[in-house]
From TrEMBL:
UniProt keyword Hydrolase, yes or no: yes
InterPro entries: AB_hydrolase_fold, KANL3/Tex30_Abhydrolase, NSL3/Tex30
PANTHER family: TESTIS DEVELOPMENT PROTEIN PRTD, TESTIS-EXPRESSED PROTEIN 30
GO molecular function: hydrolase activity
Organism: Pseudonocardia aurantiaca
Superkingdom of the source species: Bacteria
Keywords: Hydrolase
Residue stretches making up the KANL3/Tex30 alpha/beta hydrolase-like domain: 26-165
Protein name: Alpha/beta family hydrolase
């Protein structure tokens, strides 16, 4: 994995880490982290490795609040604006179809910005359907916002809830919780199969 590169955004510098595809790349997967963690989260590392092996470039995005050393996440509008600034930087460097993705809070950002950023698909790892114990505060409208194919990989015992499949949305349930650490082979297979169908023309 290469060293990080800072990218200017309207809300401070973001940091990106690039991983080049094995062979000729057909697309780029941009992945964002969760609210309290970074780009080294196990499920992000697994998804990135699966994408590289499947022939996609990968860009891991560290939001400006984390680059600046703050623990509390920035407001949604700031996260989205910073993300879209990174998207434009990546598009200029690698002019390929872009797949947005992320874990938890990062998945929400990917869904909210998919249309404005021109994503061809959205990969959601542990999408937080609602805060733990508060199912009435659901975020399903965000998950329903993309008009491109969506894959959600969710733990069976995730306290943040489980979304249902819907037209254009595949949901893969794996054993384990919000961390998605309990079934790494299952996660890798789900991401690989979905990306193959999305951008590589596989059955």
């Amino acid at each position: 994995m290469s060293a990080g590169t800072e990218v200017a955004t309207p809300h401070g510098a973001a940091r990106i880490i690039r991983r080049e595809a094995d062979g000729d790349a057909r697309a780029t997967l941009i992945l964002g982290h969760g609210a309290g963690g970074g780009v080294s989260a196990p499920d992000l590392v697994t998804a990135a490795g699966a994408a590289v092996a499947a022939g996609l470039h990968v860009v891991l995005v560290e939001q400006p609040y984390r680059v600046a050393g703050r623990r509390a996440p920035a407001p949604a509008a700031q996260l989205d604006a910073a993300w879209l600034a990174v998207v434009e930087h990546v598009r200029a460097e690698w002019p390929l179809p872009l797949v947005f993705g992320g874990r938890s809070s990062g998945a929400r950002v990917a869904c909210r910005t998919a249309a404005d950023g021109g994503a061809v698909g959205v990969l959601c790892l542990a999408f937080p359907v609602h805060p733990p114990g508060k199912p009435e505060k659901d975020r399903l409208p965000e998950l329903a916002a993309p008009t491109v194919p969506v894959l959600v990989v969710q733990g069976l015992t995730d306290p943040f809830g489980r979304p249902e499949p819907a037209p254009g949305r595949d949901v893969v349930l794996l054993r384990g919780d919000h961390s998605l650490k309990s079934d790494t082979p299952g996660l890798r297979a789900a991401v690989t199969d979905w990306l193959a169908g999305l951008v590589l023309g596989a059955p």
